[in-house]
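Recap for those who missed Tuesday's class. We walked through two folding examples back to back. For each one, the amino acid string is listed first and its predicted C-alpha cells come directly after. Nothing is annotated here on purpose, so try labeling regions yourself before you check the end of the notes.
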Amino acid sequence: MKRLLAIYFVISGFLIGIGIPAGFIYVLNTYSLTPRQFFLKAADRLSITNPLILSLMEPETRYANHPFDGRVKAGHPRILNLPLAGWAGTAAPPEVMRKVQYFTENKIPFTNPCGSGQLTSLAACWIVYGDKTAAEKGIEGLRSFRHITPDVQAVYGNGWELALVYDLLATYPNFPEEVKASVQHELRLALVDYLRLLDDTSPSLWHGRASLAANAWLCAITLDNPDEPDRKLIGRAQGHFLDVMSAWGITEAWPEGYNYWIQNRGFVLALAASAFVQGLEGSQLREEVTNIVEQAGLWPLYAMRPDKRVENLGDEGSRVDLKEETRRVIDIFAQTTRSAPLEAFSSYLGRLFDLSGYYGAYRWGFLLFNEPSPPIAERTNQNWELKYFDRWLPKSKIFGRNAMNLVYIRSAWSPDATFISYRAGHQFTHHGHYDAGHFTVFKGAPLAINSSRYDSGMFSPNRLNYSIRTIAKNSLLILRPHEKVKPNRFFVADVADGGQRITLPTGSAIESLKDWRDNLYAGAHYEGGELSAYEHVDGVYTYVASDLTGAYNSSRYDDNGENGKVSSVRRELLYLYPEDRLIVRDEVTTTDPGYQVKWLLHTANKPEAEGLSILKGTAINGILGGPAKSALIANPPGFLRLDWLVPGDGEFRLVGGPNHKRYVESDGDETRLDGENFSEQVKDAPWFDRSDWRIELNAPKGRTEHAYLVALTPSLDRPRPEPPPAVRSESGMTAVIFPESVVIFVAKDKQLRATLTVGETAKHIYIIGEPLPRKVVIDGETFHNSETENASVFHLAFTGGSRDRAHSVSIGE
C-alpha cells in the first residue's frame, strides 16, 4: 500500500501540471487495469525514466519462495517428448525417420520443414533429418534473435519460439558457446519481462495470464546451468505456471470458448505442459499435469457435433471448425500423454482436413508433434465416422465438474447421432457468457440453438444487451420490472432482460486461483450454477441435476441490494438412449408472485404450433401467443418435437422474424410489449448457428412456486409419429408415460405410495428423486434399490407380465 501511495503522489504531480489524458481513463476502465498498470502507462506517456520512480512501480514479487517441484533435466530437448535417446547428431535420428517412413508408406500428407528459412522450420529440419546446414543456419538466426516485450493487452511476446528453437538446436554437437551465452541472456531477459507482468494483478487467469505464464515457463525450463538468481527466476515461473495449471484443471474446458482457446492459448499451453512433463525429473505433479492435458484434449472431441464443429460456448470465432489450429495442439497433447484416444482424434482430424489440419505457417511442426496411429475413421455417405469410439469412450462426459459443469451427450459417434450440450457452472472470464442452465440439441442440423453472436465488437449493443446474456440461451428468465443491469459504464441503457447476474462482461483481472475462489461467493460473486448430480449409464440414460440459484439475483445475493427475485432455481436433464429423447424439468421459486418466469428455446426457423394469435408485429415477424402445448421445430434434415407437459395453464409464445429475432423486453415488464431488437451490425457468419426464432413458455403469474416439464424428441428426415406423452400427477409424484418408457419424478422429502398402469409397449421405468423410493413392484415382481442408494436415478427394465396387456407399477412401501 505504501508503494502504491508513493507511486500515486509522484505521478499525480506530473498529471496535475499537464492534465490527465482522457485515453488513460478509457484504458483503465476498458481493460480493468490496476492503479500500478495505469501509472506505468502514465510514466511511459510522460517519458518518466527516473530509476527511483520506476522501481516504486515494480509489482511485489510473487512465488519468491515457491517449493520447486522436480529437477530440471540436464540435457535437451526438454520441451517435446521426442525419440532421440542415444542420438549423437551425426546422422538422421533413426526413430524420427521411422516416423517419416510410416507417413510416406501410408500416404499420409506432410510438409518437409527443410524448405523454409524460418527458425522453427530450420530447427525442425535438424531434428527430423539431421540436416547440419539447417542447424547452423538456425543457430546463426538465434545469434540475432530478440524477444518481443509482452504486455497485458494481448501481446504475449515470442518467448515460446526462442525457447523451442534453442531447445531443439541445443542438441547440435557443434553449437558455439558464445551463441549459447547470447541465447541464454535473451531467455533471461524475456523471463524477467514475463515475471514482471505476472507479478502484477492485471493479467487475468483464464485469459492473458495463462499465455504469459506458459511463455515464462518455457523460457525458464530452457535456461542452462542456472546460478542462484536464475534458480529463483525459474522457481517463480513454475509457481505462476502451476497456478494456471490448477485453474485449467478445475475447468478442463476453457471458459472463454473454443475459438479463444485454440487461437490464443492452446498451442503455448500445450508446449508448456509438455515441457513440465518432459523437462522435469522427479516431479510429484507429473501425473496431475498429464491428466489435465488429456482432459483438455478430450474436450473438443466431446464438444464436436456431428457436423464436425465444436458447439459454441463463449465469445466464439471461426476456428470452431477444427481446421488449421486444432490438430497441432491435439498432437502435442497426445505426445505428452501417450493417450490412444487423442492419437485417434488426431488421425480423425487428418482424415477430415489432410494438410489443412495444420495452418500453412505451422506445418514445420507436424513431424515433431504427430505420433503415427492407425487410421480409425471410416467414410460413409461423404462423412467420416468415429464408430471406433462407440466401444472405447462413453457417450457422455462432464468437464470441469463443480466448476464449469459442462456436459456433452451423444447417442453415437456417427453423423446421424443426436448431440446435446449442457452448461451449469460459475463465471471465470469476460469472454464467458451468463448461461447457467443452457442446453443445445443437434440432430442432422442445429435444433435447440445458442443464438449468441460475437462479430460486432466487445462493446457492441448486441453483445452487451443480448449475446452474453441468458436471453440468448436456452435457459430460464425471471423478469423483475426495472431490474438494474448496469455493470459498468459501457452499459449505456438499463436493459433488464430477466436473466442472470452479469459480473465481468468487458474485462477481468483475476490474478490467481485463490483470488477467484475468494470472490466466488463473496466480493465479485462469480457463482453461477452448481451440480447436484451427474449420472451416466452408457446406452441407457444420462442424468444431470443442477442448482442455478446463485446465477440470478437471489435471496442469497442480489447486486441490486434487494431481496432477490428468486430463492431457488433448479434444472434437471434426463436423456433416454433407447428412445432418443430428452426431458427437461425445472423448479423455480420467485420472491414475488408478480415476476414472470420464462422457459426459452431458440430455433433456426419458425416452429409450428397451433392456436397462436399475433400479439405484436405480424405472423412472420413479431410475437405470437396462445395456449399451445406442443410444437414442431424443423431444420432439415433435423426435426425436434416439443411437448410442454407441466404446467398445464401457461402461455406459449413465439418470438422472431427480421425485427424480433433478438428482441429483449428491456424494462423487464411485459405489461406493454415495447422492447428492443438488438440486431444492429450483427452478421450471420458461418461459425454461428442461424437462430431467427425462439419459443417462450410463460409460467402463470400469481404464484411463487413454478414447475416445468418439457419433453424434446429429435428425429431425422421427418417427425416421429408418436402420440403425445401422458402425464399423471399426484402428491409427491409426477409421472410421464411414453410408448416405451415411464419416467417418474419423486418430490423431495415426500412419502410416496402410488400405482400406475402403463401400456404393453413399455420397456423401461426411470424413477428420479431425493431420496429414491426403497421398493418398486412391477407386475408383481419386487425390486429394491439398495444397490443404488446413493444414486438419483433408479432404472429398471420391465421383465414380468405379458406383452399383450398393460403393466402395473407400484412405488413405495
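Example two. Treat it independently of the first, because the proteins are unrelated.
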Amino acid sequence: MIGKAESPAIPETDIPLAWAPCYIEKQFPVSKISMESYKERKAVQSQTLTGLGKWWGRKPLVLVRATILGLLMPASDDPIKDRDIFLKLMTMDEEGLWRRKEKPIPEKRLIEELIKLPTSIQQRFLDLNTLREAPRLRTDISRVEKAELQHLVFQRIPYSEKLMYCCRPEQIDGPSGDTWEEINAYLGTNSTRLPELVEELGRRRFGHRPRVGDSFCGAGSVPFEGARLGCDAYGSDLSPVAALLTWSALNIVGGGEEVAKKIKDAQRKIFEAVDRKVTEWGIEHNEQGWRADAFLYCVEVFDPESAWMIPLAPSWVIGEKSRTIGKLIPDKENKRYDIEIHHEVSQEEMNLARHSGTVQNSRLMPPDGGPTTPIDVIRHNLRMWENEDLVPRSKDIFQERLYCIRWKETYYEMKDEAKLLEMTKQEAEALPHFQTLLENGKLKEKTRRHYRAPTKEDIKREQKVLGLLRERFDDWQAKGYIPSRRIEPGKETTRLFRERGWTHWHHLFTPRQLLIHGCIMENSRERIDSSHSSVAALLGVGRCCDWNSRLCRWGVGAARESFAQTFYNQAFNTLFNYGSKGLRLLEGVWHMRFDVNDLLTAKSCLPLDARKITELCDLWITDPPYADAINYEELSEFFLAWYEKKLPNLFPDWYSDSKRALAVKGHDDSFRRSMVDSYKRLVECLPDNGLQVVMFTHQDAAVWADLAIILWTAGLSVVSAWCVATETDAVIKEGNYVQGTVLLVLRKRTEEQTVFLDEIVQRVETEVKRQLDTMIALDDESDPNFGDADYQLAAYAAALRVLTERPIEEIDPSKEILRQRKPGEVNPVEQLIRNAVKIACDHLVPIGIENDIWKSLSSMERFYLKGLEVESHAEYRNGVYQELARGFGATDYTSLLASTRANQTRLKTAGEFGRRMLSGEGFPRSLIRQLLFAVHQVTKNDQTRDGLNWLRTELADYWTIREKIINLLDYIAALGHISGMGHWRKDAEAAGLLAGSVRNDHV
C-alpha cells in the first residue's frame, strides 16, 4: 500500500484532537487556489450556483472547499508532505490534474514543447523530414503514442496552462483509489470519498460530524460546499433574497434527481403556457409570420437649443457582425428624427454611426452639430412618476421610443433534383407528407434574423401590449405578480429618482417586460405542485428581470448582438438606449440549468441578523460586508420587489423586508460596533476548539486597523492569513479594484495576560520576518505558491497575529471602537500595521541584489528596484505599487511610473526617463538615477564609453563603489531575459554591456 511506511499526521485514536493545529494555520497553496478560483470565475454562467440567480461577491466554491479541508486537515511536523497530501485531496497534484484533463492539447502546442526535448524523443513523435522548417507530428502516430505525448507535454507545461485543458475539481469524484491509499496512510484515516474523510477528521477534532456556518451567507457558497463535502451546514443572511438563493443552493441544486426532474417539468409547462398566451395575443408576430426576439428602445428628449425632439444613443451601431446601423433622418415638418435601419453597410458607414451618438459625456449632442446641452440641465424639470405610470406622459422630459425590432424568420429548404428550393413556413407546412419530409431530412428548417424599423402595425402591437397590461395591472399588483413596492432612497437607489423620475420598482421595466414577467408569475401559481418548483419559478422570474429590464444594454462586445444583464456591475445604471427580450429569447434565462447534487447531511438556512444567531457551529466561514463596497440591501430590493408577496407563502417564518436599517455598513463607529456585535455572537456560538475564517478584501492600513480592533474586541485572535486572487479581469470594471481576498484564520483568544505597546513593536518585527521566511521556504521557484501581493498582505496578517494575541495595556478596545477619529488621524494600531509593511519591504531583498547593497539604498531606490521585480512577475495592479510605496516611505513614487492605468501600472525604463529627473533632491541625485541615465546614453549612442564616462564624471566615489554599480547594473541587465519585459530589452542589453565596461575599468 502506497505510503504505509510514513507516520500518520493524526494518531489513530477516538479522542478529539481539540487543539491540534490545522493545515491552513501553517500554510495554504494560494497561487494554485488563485488559479483554480480564476478558472471557476471564467466559467461565468456555467458556475455551479450562478444559474440560481444574481448575487454580488460570490466566493468561488473551490476556495471554500480548500478552506474547509484546510481547517479540518491537521498540520504535522512535515510541511512539505502536508502540502502534497492537501493538493492530492484537492486534485491539484500532478495525478489529480491528469484525471481532470478533459481537452486535448493542440498539435501546435505539442510541437512547441517537443522541439525543446532531446532528439531521441523528437524522433519518436515528429516527422523527421520537417524538423528544420515547419515541424509536424508523424502521420502514422498510434493512439497509444498520442496519449503518451499528451501526458509528456502536460507534465511540462505550467499549472495555469494545465487548467486550460482540465475540468474543475468539483466536476470529478475526488482523488483516485491509489491516491486515497496514500492519503489514508498519511492521515491515519480510512476513507474513499471526501465526505467520508471530512466526517472522520471532524469526529477526531470535534467529536462529531463537523458543522460549518456562515452568518453572511450571500448566495450560499459556504453552506453549499460545506454540505457537499459532508458537513452539517448552516447559513443565514440579513437579506431574504440571499437566504432564498442559499436555500435553493442547498435544496434545489443539492436536492437530487427527483427534485431536478420536477423543476424541469414545471418550468417547461409554465413556459409553454406563456408561449401559447403570447402567440394568442399576437404581440410578437408580424404579418409575414416572423417572430420578434428583441425590441430596441431609446430615450427621446426635447432639445432646448434647437426645439427639436432628439433620440438619444451613445452610438447608432446596432450590430457589428451584421453591420447594422440606425440612421437619423430629419423630419423638418415635425421637428424630430426618423430612424432608418440599414444592414450590411460599408465600413465607412459603420465608423460614422459609431461616432455619431447623440449623447456623449453626459451631454446632448444634436445631429446637426448645434450647441450641446448638459443632460443635467435637461433633467431640471424632471417629473416623479406615480404608481400607475407605465410609460412616460406626453409632457415628460424623457420620452420612450421603439426604434428597431429584430425579427426571426423561420423558412425551409428542400432539394428538388439539382435545385435547392426555399419556401416560407406556411408553404412548407402545406406540402403533402410534410412531417415525413422533415424526418427523412429532405426538408430542413432554417432561421434567419432581420433588423427592421417599427411599422405602423408594430406600433399598434406596442399599444396592444400597454392595453393588455393596464387591464391586469391592479389585479396583478394586488396578487404580487408584478411589483407594487416604492423605491426607498439610498446611495444607489436615489439615482433612479434623480436621473429618470422612477419611484416604484415596476418603473424599471417596459410594459412588454411587465406583461411577460407577470404572465409567467400568474402561470407559475397555476401549474406548480411542489415548494421546490415554486422557489425555482420565483428565481426564474428573478433571472428574467435581471436580463430583461430598462437597465439592460444592447450590443455588448465587439461582435455580440445581444443584451447585457441589469447587474453587469454593482450599480443601477440608467440608460439612454436599452432593449427588451422577446419570450423566446428569454427561454434560456427562464429554464434553470444546474448539475444535480445529492446533499444528505443536515442543512438549514434563514434570513436573520448576524447579531441574533443561536446556531452552534465548529467552523464559521464569513465574508462580511465591509466599508460600503457593495450596497447589498439596496440592490437586492430590485428582486425583493418581485418576491415579497410570495415569500411568506413559501416560508411562513421568514420576513420579506430588506432590513436596510439593520445592514452592517459604513466606516464610522456604528459600523465598527455592529461588526463587533456580530463577531461576539459568532464567538459565543463557537466551541473553544472551533475555528473561524474571515474573508476580507481591502488594502487600506486604516481599514485593517479597524478590523484588528473589531476581532480583538470580539475575543478572537488571528493565527494566520492568506491572500487568494478571486476576481477576473473584467473589461467592465474600471479603476484599481481589489482582486484578492484575504483569509484570516482565527481562534478564540485564551491569553489574558496584558502586554505593553512598546513590547509589541519588536514582536511585530520578529513575527513579520518569521512569516515571510516561512513562505519563502515553502515556495517553489518554478511553480510559485505566492505572489508579491501575498508577501505584502502577510505582513498585515503577522501584525494582526501579534496585536490580537493578548490584551494591550495602553489600548482599551471597547473604547477604541467608539472613539471618534479626527481626519488623517493614525492610531497606534494602524501605525503598527504600517510599520509591518515597511519591515516586510526591507526584508524582502530582490533576487540578484546583495543584502549590504540593498541596505545602503534610499527608500525611493528600493521602491524602484523592488517595483521592477514586482513587474517582472507580471503584477500590474496599482494597489500593489501603492503598498510598496507606503512600505518604503516613497512619497513621490508616481513620478517613477510609466503608467498608472488600472491593471497596467509599471515603472519607467531608462529610455523613458531620458534626461528627465536628473536635477533636484531625492531620487534625481540617487545612484540608481545616474545608472539609468548612463544606460540610456549607451542605448542612445550605441557606445558603452558614453555611459562609462557619465558615471566617472558624475559619481565622486565611483572607484570605491564599483562593485555596487556592477551588482545593480547586472540586476537591470537580467530584466531583458524575462518574459513580459520586452520594453526593457534594449536598455537591459545596454546595462549588461555597461556592467562589463565597469568590471574592466582600471585606473
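Answers for example two:
Residues 1-16, 729-738 have pLDDT under 50 and may be disordered.
Residues 256-281 form the longest helix (26 residues).
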